[in-house]
Amino acid sequence: MVPKSKITFFERFEVDILSGKKTLTIRNEEEKDYQPNTQVNVYTYEQERWFCRLIILRVEPILFENLTIEHARQENMTLAELKTIIQEIYPGINQLYVIYYELVTP
Ligand SMILES: CC(=O)Nc1ccn([C@@H]2O[C@H](CO)[C@@H](O)[C@H]2O)c(=O)n1
Fold first, then answer.
1. 17 within a domain of the structure (yes/no)
2. How confident is the model at residue 1 (pLDDT cuts 50, 70, 90)?
3. Dihedrals φ, ψ of 102, to 5°?
4. Does some domain include residue 53?
5. Is the CB of 13 inside a 6 Å radius of any atom of ligand 1?
6. Please, what is the average pLDDT of the chain?
7. Of 24, 44, 75, 91, which has the highest C-beta tally within 10 A?
8. How many domains does the chain have?
9. pLDDT in tens, 36-74
């Protein structure tokens, strides 16, 4: 596995990431290959605009049905909101991965 050095987010999450309110993301099998303790460049999905660097803390498998309010809290969302968003992005996918990260401050 070659670890990824870049990650994209929908730009509507940029403010929450930069303010430290959103400290994890939930991705599918194709997007899970991040190496803990390494930094990645972060871009908006829509315009591919660079907006920060993150340090990857850890990557943990999670089944959709096992998502909790604690995951949602770290997304700055309710659990219902988080589940709705994930079902929109990854319809029908049960095996997901939680990627925990921290903002790199220059
Ligand atoms: C742009 C792209 O390539 N993919 C994704 C996939 C997910 N997410 C966000 O991560 C959390 C859990 O999935 C939620 O906050 C999602 O909206 C995102 O911003 N961009």
1. yes
2. confident
3. -135, 145
4. yes
5. yes
6. 97
7. 75
8. 1
9. 999 999 999 999 999 999 999 999 999 999 999 999 999
